[in-house]
């Protein structure tokens, strides 16, 4: 997915933006990490049968945790 497709199919609601912003400030993530988190969250939402236009915050928590584990932040 390119940037436009990410915005269209994996958009964030207000609560999701806050959650992702907090994760970026805490973990020091890059733009590439953002795209990876968005793609994983969209995949989780698809598997859960969520609507296409917006992903709810619970869909964002897992990929953020996965990224934290990858960076060695969460033990």
Automatic annotation (TrEMBL):
<feature type="domain" description="Mg chelatase-related protein C-terminal">
    <location>
        <begin position="1"/>
        <end position="53"/>
    </location>
</feature>
<protein>
    <recommendedName>
        <fullName>Mg chelatase-related protein C-terminal domain-containing protein</fullName>
    </recommendedName>
</protein>
<dbReference type="InterPro" id="IPR025158">
    <property type="entry name" value="Mg_chelat-rel_C"/>
</dbReference>
<dbReference type="Pfam" id="PF13335">
    <property type="entry name" value="Mg_chelatase_C"/>
</dbReference>
């Amino acid at each position: 997915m390119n940037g436009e497709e990410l915005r269209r199919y994996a958009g964030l609601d207000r609560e999701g933006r806050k959650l992702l912003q907090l994760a970026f400030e805490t973990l020091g993530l890059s733009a590439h990490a953002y795209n990876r988190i968005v793609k994983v969250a969209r995949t989780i939402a698809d598997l859960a049968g969520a609507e296409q236009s917006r992903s709810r915050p619970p869909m964002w928590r897992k990929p953020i945790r996965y990224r934290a584990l990858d960076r060695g932040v969460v033990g």
